[in-house]
Structure formats: structure tokens, C-alpha cells
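Before the break, one more example. Copy the sequence into your notebook; we will annotate it together after we see the structure.
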Amino acid sequence: MPLDHVGHIVLVLSGKGGVGKSSVTTQLALTLSLQGHTVGVLDIDLTGPSMPRFFGLEDSKVRQAPGGWMPVAVHARQALRAHCTHVTPGPHAVGALSCMSLGFILASRRDAVIWRGPKKTAMVRQFLTDVLWPALDYLLIDTPPGTSDEHIALLETLLQNTSPVPRPGLPHLAGAVVVTTPQAVAVSDVKKELNFCRKTAIRVLGVVENMAGFVCPNCSECTNVFSKGGGQIMASDFHVPFLGSVPIDPAFVQLVEEGVRPRYPAGTVVAGRDVGSEQLEDGGESNEGLLVDKYRDCSLYPLFDGFVTRLVADIKKDDGP
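Here is what the structure looks like once it is written out:
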């Protein structure tokens, strides 16, 4: 099956809607690509497919090929530009990134998906069996909130066609990244997702606490709008790794919505790193380049660079010599 070309599969889960799973998936994918890995993103949030918008591909459509669908290319493998100053230099090439989503199949992005469980189940299984992925180092699967029909179909198909440990010729179901926000109501729902992982023997690779603070676009302060620390406490209670906290960054929103390269006032510090610019530029240069290139100037990239480095090291511990 097409998954045979996939090295490691990572699920992005949450028991709560609106916590930013798709945002986290996008940034994990871009960061893996910037570290030189070839990446695919599969969006199985059928009623709210948002990955095409995050990648700026809303007008793209999938192509039929003998045996299945061709995923949409976000960018090809390319040389890494060396303009970013606040991140430790990585590999000399950006890995290719491709995406598959129901949003590429619908006639209009405004169309509502009103499907019963069996049709959702069939669609998820078709995504897992009919998408002709190129050879991938990592496949990230962005899921809807909760533990619904899509999750059951996803796991049934994956557990039949993958291996929990790396084996030649079989894709490795590495585990899941679980996303929460700091509030008690979100943490309460996300605990159910961790219990879901425990009952289905899905390894939790780490918890990300999203929206833990707000980076002011006009000054250097980061304010904890939704408090902070709930995700870390939850991870500790369930004895799973805590990857870290991610603040809300309006510059990342502007990057996704308008394609504007992030710029920050001098003195802006996120996670102990100075990501500010001495002079804010508002010219055409801000809009030039690919999404992956612009993302390197985002204040959130150093955070996700650390998350991904830990995830990759953790996953590769099982690869053996």
C-alpha cells in the first residue's frame, strides 16, 4: 500500500476543539522540513479541513494517477537560504513537503461536509490506502478533536498496516503529539485523549501547551492570557513527555493569512531568545519567498525547532544501528 513509502507516522491529537492542532501540525511539518526531512501532512479533519489554508493552497486540487491520488506539493526540496540569524544553522537543504486534505477535493471551500459515520470511516480509509505519497521520512496526520469515527477508522487501518517498532518495509507508527491549551476546561478534555492513547497502546511522544501567552506585536512583552502550566501538570500526571509551551503570535497568524514575513520590535524575547529586528521592514521583501523560508523568521520557530529535535531523537532511539 502507499504507506510503504513512509518512514515514521506521527498523529497530532487533542480531545478539545480549537486548541490549535492544525497550527501545531503546520509548524511541526515546516520545522521537520527545515531540518532536512521529507514530510507529508494528511488532514483527516473531514468537517473542518484547514491544512490547505495554513499552507496557502486553498485553490489547489489533487490529481488522479493510476492507483490513487497525488498529494499537493507545498514545496520541493531546495537549498536553504542563510538569512535567519536567531536560529542555530541546520542542514543545507530543505526537505520536500506535500499535503493531502478533503479541502483539495471539495468543489468549493464553502461546501459543508454533512456525512454520517460510515462515509467518514470510508473516506479516512481511502486517504490511508489511495494517496500515492513519495518516499517520506515523516507523515504527520492532523485529526479532528475527540475520539470519533475518524479516529477509530484511522487506528484500525494503521494498526493493520504499520509496525509499533521500526522494521524494514513497514511504516513505523511512532506515536502521537497531544495538543492542549492551559485552561482547566481544555486540560480536562485532553486528559480523555491521553486515556484514549493509553487504551489503544498509542505512544505519546509529547504534550504541547498551545496559546500559553500572547506576544504583543507592539512591544517586547509576552502575557499569559489563558494562564500557563496546565499542560505541563497534565503531562506529569500521565507520565508522558512535556515538549513545551507555545504563545499566541499575531505575526504567525499574519504569515498564514497574508503571507507576510514576520518582523518584531527590537528587544522581543521568546523562550529566552531575542527575535527582534533593529528596523521593521514593511516593504515588498516581507512578502517574498516560500512559506517555509518566511517561517524561519517567526518567533515560534526556535520553539518548534527544539520540539522537533527532541521528537526526532526520541523516535530514532528505536531505529537501532
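The two ends are 26 Å apart (CA to CA). Confidence is low (pLDDT under 50) at residues 278-284. Try to locate both features in your own notes.
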